[in-house]
Amino acid sequence: MFHGKVSKQIAKGLVELRKRIEKAKIPSSKLDETLNIATWNIREFGKKKRSEAAIHYIAEILNQFDLIGVVELRDDLSDLGRVIEILGPYWRAVYSDMIPDSGGNQERIAYIYDKRVVTFNGLAAEANPPRKKKGTEYLSDLTWWRSPYMASFRSGNFDFIVLTVHIRWGKSVAERRRALELLADWIEAKRQEKHGEDKDLIVMGDFNITSTGSSLYKAITKHSLSLPRALQRLQAGSNLARNKRYDQILHHPIYSEEFTNHGGILDFYQNSINPLFPGMTKDAFTYQMSDHLPLWIQINTDLDGHELDQIIQG
């Protein structure tokens, strides 16, 4: 980290933030053995310039992980650049283009990663819904408004694809469910592709699902996507009130031991804005930090033993 010379107030905030981070009990990743991956909806990140304090705090949080899928990155990338400068020269970002209409909300999705731990494998693309020929055109019956964004990575000897989403809230639960069912079908078709880049697919982001018992969760998991064991134990949500499961990390792994027993939510809020932003209202706090908390999981990246077992088993 390269926080540099900061004000006394920011220094106090960073000390408190590190105490809150410590409570999340995030284990350090080990080169070529484990990978800490997270998804975080950073509210309207780039719409309005963040304070210096917020940039330092956001960088401190991102630095706990090796690869982060960021939701709600906006068209202006200036604040992203400020954060990466603090993270240091080993950090990189790959991101989608923004969509300027109201449905796209000028949003991007980004992957921020530490290149010492994670290698970008070359694939970066938006997911497109299935099309049917209508007259002379090929058109989709339904769109996602904001296209899911996927990228391929390698860590240790584990090659994988991450797909990050920001599902529409829409006018009704039924509308949201249709979008999630379409996404579930798309993911399953991608997994079954004969010449797919990799069949290890991690799906994460803001699904706007209120609980894992809802019809919306059943829609996205219709083809056996599931929560890693470490996240199945979670009782709380990833919003500041900790009562909604909007954010998810799902998988359909080939190897049963890809995910360790470490995972959870990093609660940087903990019902207290002070001393991070003294005197600030909760609403203003969400535009400096976010109204979502990062959701994370640790992954095994040393799969030699699994590959040898596969050979033996034929």
Characterize this entry briefly:
This protein is 27% helix and 28% strand. The protein is built from 8 helices and 13 strands.
Write up what this structure looks like.
The chain is about 25% helix and about 30% strand. α2 crosses α3. The chain has eight helices and 13 strands. The chain is globular. The strands form three sheets. It has a six-stranded mixed beta sheet. It has a five-stranded mixed beta sheet with strand order 5-8-9-10-11, with no helix packed on it. A two-stranded antiparallel sheet has the order 6-7. The chain has a single domain, classed as 4-Layer Sandwich (Deoxyribonuclease I, Chain A), CATH 3.60.10. The relative contact order is 0.17. By secondary structure, the chain is α+β, with helices and mostly antiparallel strands. The mean pLDDT is about 95. The longest helix is centred in the middle third of the chain and has 20 residues, at about 175-190.
Over all CA atoms, what is the radius of gyration? 19 Å
Structural class: alpha+beta
Mean pLDDT: 93
Q: What is the string of helix and strand elements? A: HEHEHEEEEEEEHEHHEEHEH
User: Could you give the order of strands across the largest sheet?
Assistant: 3-4-2-1-13-12
> What fraction of residues sit in β-strands?
25-35%
Topology at a glance:
Blueprint: H1 8-23, E1 34-45, H2 52-62, E2 67-74, H3 78-87, E3 91-95, E4 107-114, E5 119-126, E6 132-134, E7 137-139, E8 149-155, E9 158-166, H4 173-192, E10 201-206, H5 215-220, H6 229-232, E11 247-251, E12 259-265, H7 282-288, E13 295-300, H8 304-313
Parallel strand pairs: 1-2, 9-10
Antiparallel strand pairs: 1-13, 2-4, 3-4, 5-8, 6-7, 8-9, 10-11, 12-13
Helix pairs in contact: 1-2, 2-3
